[in-house]
Design brief:
With 348 residues, the protein is of the alpha+beta class. It has one domain (22-314): Neuraminidase, CATH 2.120.10. Helices cover 16% and strands 34% of the residues. The longest helix has 29 residues, at 319-347. The protein is globular and about 45 Å long.
């Protein structure tokens, strides 16, 4: 047996175990396949939005113009296309505001080099509007946009390691801008044991999409493996306030690269995945997901869960230094043990 891979495996396992102190809770509902997405125009499906009438709209994160596709939710066939003469750099998510405006989140930045990102508003009538945005703390990759009853878009960043940032425009959106963003919070998702996605275990912490229920009572963030549902505080329309609560997990396992999420008017949760070179993609549904989130006494229909944490950027949760410190300590001990094992292997 080669001692080097075994030692490396021990280090990874112990560090992941250290970070596994965050618990999970899940809804007692499984996703059901509605149809298979086979149209090549949606091989890179990354955004879903549902109109009050129940129309399901989808968006891919490629192309030289904004292109929104209305789907037949029983067959996944494209039955209508809307376009806007705006060339996004990397459109990643789609949301619908109460006034019927589609919001395209042109916020992808895998290499974190963009000086500005953008939100593209596509109203029911009239021309699309381009709103450029700047982060206050350097470039970020982001694949989730949330729009609540107040109509204010909120961006949540995509982080493979570490916490995700929550950003809101500092004021009215300029056209084309840029409008500065303000960091209003941080999201740390609980642990999950769901499988799927292109990055292994890290995919369960990587935020790839967002959605708000039709009545504004539930806000959802998704990763490659799960959706996390938050109840909107009574009397509030602020999605940031909702993210301050305890989420309920809805497992979305075994999607090739799950990025799309939306609610039907009856509270059914829809999810979809990119599929280019990764296998088939399906439009899947979790009936009654919003009702489960509203009825759950805690974060779970089955067991309690540690909440995701949203705090102002200047304040760190008291538990976080202890968790990180413990993880580092365990990792250092594991590295020491690995070094001894490698040394012994060379001597033999």
């Amino acid at each position: 047996m080669n001692a080097r891979p075994a030692a490396r495996g021990a280090v990874v396992a112990l560090v992941l175990l250290a970070f596994g102190v965050l618990g999970t809770g899940s809804a007692s509902a499984d996703p059901v396949s509605r149809c298979t997405v086979e149209d090549p125009r949606l091989l890179e499906l990354s955004g879903l939005a549902v109109a009050p009438s129940g129309e399901v709209w989808a968006m891919a994160d490629s192309g030289r113009e904004v292109r929104l596709q209305r789907l037949d939710p029983s067959t996944c066939d494209i039955v209508e296309t809307r376009t806007a003469d705006v060339d996004p750099l990397d459109a990643e998510d789609l949301a619908l505001s109460p006034d019927g405006t589609f919001w395209v989140a042109d916020t992808g930045d895998n290499n974190r080099r963009r000086e500005t990102v953008a939100l593209i508003a596509v109203p029911p009538r009239g021309e699309a509007r381009l709103h450029r945005l700047t982060y206050p703390d350097g470039a970020h990759d982001a694949e989730a946009v949330l729009v609540g009853a107040d109509g204010v878009p909120v961006i949540v960043t995509k982080e493979v390691l570490g916490s995700a940032g929550v950003y809101r425009p500092a004021g009215p959106l300029a056209e084309p801008g840029p409008t500065p963003l303000t960091r209003v919070g941080t999201v740390v998702l609980p642990r999950s044991d769901s499988s799927g996605g292109p990055v292994g275990d890290l995919g369960s912490y990587t935020i790839t999409g967002g959605a708000t229920s039709a009545d504004g009572s539930v806000v959802a963030l998704r990763t490659y493996t799960d959706a996390w549902l938050y109840r909107m505080p009574r009397g509030s329309a602020d999605v940031v306030a909702a993210l301050d609560g305890v989420p309920m997990r809805v497992p979305l396992p075994d999607e090739p690269q799950g990025e799309a999420l939306a609610f039907l008017p009856d509270g059914t949760l829809l999810s979809g995945s990119e599929t280019r070179g990764l296998g088939k993609g399906e439009l899947r549904a979790v009936p009654g997901a919003a009702a489960l989130a509203l009825a759950a006494p805690t974060a779970s229909a089955t067991e309690p869960a540690t909440p995701a944490v949203v705090v102002p950027p200047e304040r760190t949760p008291e538990w976080q230094p202890a968790v990180i410190g413990g993880a580092i300590a365990i990792g250092l001990l594991a590295l020491g043990a690995a070094a001894m094992a490698l040394h012994g292997h060379r001597r033999r």
